[in-house]
Amino acid sequence: MTLEEDRPPPDWLGDVSTGVDAWTRRASAPAAAPAVEDNGRPVSRRGGAPPPEDTAVQVPEADPESVARKILLDQLTGQARSRKELADKLSAKNVPPEVATRLLDRFEEVGLVDDEAFARSWIASRQPGKHLARRALAQELRRKGVDDEVAREALDEIDPADEEEAARALVRKKLRSLSRVDDTTATRRLVGMLARKGYGSGLAFAVVKDELAASGREGPETAMDD
């Protein structure tokens, strides 16, 4: 009898499922941790201390003021912003409040943050481009965090004639799409459009009446006061 014949048979012999389980347990057993060299000698990490931290890739913690300054400069590149907009951006980036206040004060001192200039710039871009009236512009500036008195001084620079001409341009453009509706409906839609742009009802009705008449249509009989 040979040596192999003396060896007892495995416990899974004759049972395929048991044999598969035995095989998969061996196949899925975790491999030994790879050895690493220590002064030329192989050393196993199993049970040993973790490898030393690589100090070459450590980055020093960024200075909050330097980070905040870069955020402000990035925000001001190519576009004026109100102080509140900048403060909100710094807050969203978790800049400490005392650092944010100190930097914003410094930026104001050198003229990089100027709510008066911002208000005038905002009006110059929104009034002719979007044909917005003073009321709508005042609401936008308030949402931007501009002080009401600062906004009022900038809004006072708007020429009333320019505001009226902007309203007329809006009505003339909208009239092109209202050729198939009756005059009463056209009047209601045109006045509503001007109201959404911030125009008072008195000016809105007067402009709509004039523009409807100029196009050969009848306008509202009376204008309402603001």
UniProtKB/TrEMBL annotation:
Sequence segments annotated as region (Disordered): 1-64
GO BP term, pick one: regulation of DNA repair
Keyword Protein transport attributed: no
Domain RecX second three-helical: 114-155
Keywords from the named record: Cytoplasm
Subcellular location: Cytoplasm
GO annotations of cellular component type: cytoplasm
Ranges for domain RecX first three-helical: 68-106
RecX third three-helical domain mapped to chain residues: 162-208
Protein family per UniProt: Belongs to the RecX family.
Its job: Modulates RecA activity.
PANTHER family: REGULATORY PROTEIN RECX FAMILY PROTEIN
Protein's UniProt name: Regulatory protein RecX
Natural source organism: Nocardioides agri
Gene name as annotated: recX
